Amino acid sequence: MKIAMVDPSLFTGRYDDSLCAALGAQGHDVTLLGRPLRTTDAILPQNYRYSPRYFRVGETARRFVGEGLPFRAIKAAEYVADCLIGAKPSADVVHYQWLPFAPADRHILRRLSHTGVPLVHTVHNASAYHGDANLQGRGYAELLDHFDRLIVHGQTTKDALVSKGVASERIAIIPHPPMQLAPATDASRAAMPPPQSPRILFFGTIRPYKGLDLLIEACLALWRKGAQFELAIAGKPFMDIAPMLASVTDAGFAQSLHTDLGFLEESRLSAWIESADLLVFPYRHIDSSGAFLSALHCGKAMVCTDTGLFSSLRDEDAVALVPCENADALAQSLLPILQSAAIRHEMGNRAAALGHRLGNWDKAGSATVDIYQQAQAIAARGGKANA
User: Fold this and answer.
1) What are φ and ψ of residue 313, in 5° steps?
2) Quick one: how far is CA 140 from the chain centroid?
3) pLDDT at residue 383 in the model
4) For residues 173 and 152, what is the distance between their CA atoms, to the nearest angstrom?
5) pLDDT at 376
6) What is the rounded CA–CA span in Å between residue 23 and residue 25?
């Protein structure tokens, strides 16, 4: 089967790479279509091809204008033109991982619908971009009608889509297998400040729904009570976090805070994870978490909020769960873990074991091909939304 995997902005590059490699290993002809690769991307295609199909102008301009408003305007204009008159992905099935700009995406999906090619979309989050995308995600829900089949990672996302009027039979659940980041290197390890006390790590893109403010509030409460630990923050902010960081400095705990802000190479993220004693995911809401699934194999103690994927792990006893939007409960959960290396060791072992139980990419690839075959049958009948 000839498969076009589409993630124009490469929002989930590690997920895309893992799935494409699995599909290719099963004998399918797979091409991943995204933007030109950056130095922070760790994609080395195995069993599939990578095509830097999108945002070539924008990525060139990025080197000169940065990532501010001019960059976003150039990308938007380029993508609108591409969706209106650019070449259509050609394959036996076109699988969209992300729809980066809904006002433009509707045009390419209409053009593709007229060709009769089967269309599949993975809905990574039931709420487009976790509800903070503004114009970028406006009209996203209406785009779902263009697809023959939808894939989600869990029951929570499926239920949310059904509540919005999507027919249950159009949605398939394929669990998100754990992933592995590029390993740490000697150089990336050497760049890490050595821990002087137990280290909490918050890593990945920094957005409002991820609750960094709640974690900082919990850490401040613990520091003020005399708890000895460090907080490290590693990742690219997509919001103003200066006031949060200033609150730590103003309270006199700057020596306990480490920051490494920006798009980081995976080897650098891996080095931060290695240096940490405890990983915290204080999300306000989430369907699935690539950061969490990328860290499971590292065998670190983990504290997560009781939402989405994390809620589904309640019976696994592999992570500590705390209520969402509750910094006090988060602080109470963190304290005994910070105080006991034995607890951290046991929690880390359970997290690593969970990673082994959560499935693998070969199984996910086979399940995805089953969906492609269903989409082909539906497209052949001219089905789409009413299938």
Assistant:
1) -95, 10
2) 18
3) 61
4) 5
5) 95
6) 5
Using 50 as the pLDDT threshold, list the residues of the chain that sit under it: 385-387
Query: In angstroms, rounded to a whole number, what is the distance separating the alpha carbons of residues 381 and 116?
Result: 10
Q: What is the CB neighbour count within 10 angstroms for residue 341?
A: 12
Q: What is the 3-state secondary structure (H, E, C) of the chain?
A: CEEEEECCCCCCHHHHHHHHHHHHHCCCEEEEECCCCCCCCCCCCCCCEEECCCCHHHHHHHHHHCCCHHHHHHHHHHHHHHHHHCCCCCCCEEEECCCCCHHHHHHHHHHHHCCCCCEEEECCCCCHHHHCCHHHHCCHHHHHHHCCEEEECCHHHHHHHHHCCCCHHHEEECCCCCCCCCCCCHHHHHCCCCCCCCEEEEECCECHHHCHHHHHHHHHHHHHCCCCCEEEEEECECCCCHHHHHHHHHCCCHHHEEEEECCCCHHHHHHHHHHCCEEEECCCCCCCCHHHHHHHHHCCEEEEECCHHHHCCCCCCCCEEECCCCHHHHHHHHHHHHHCHHHHHHHHHHHHHHHHHCCCHHHHHHHHHHHHHHHHHHHHCCCHHHC
Residues 48, 32 contacting (CB under 8 angstroms): yes
The whole-model pTM stands at 0.89
Q: Is 245:259 a contact under the CB 8 Å cutoff?
A: yes
134-182 pLDDT per residue, tens: 666 678 999 999 999 999 999 989 999 999 999 999 999 999 999 989 9
Identify the residue whose tokens are 């873990």.
337
Contact 334, 218 (CB under 8 A): yes
Euclidean distance between CA atoms 157 and 267, whole angstroms: 31
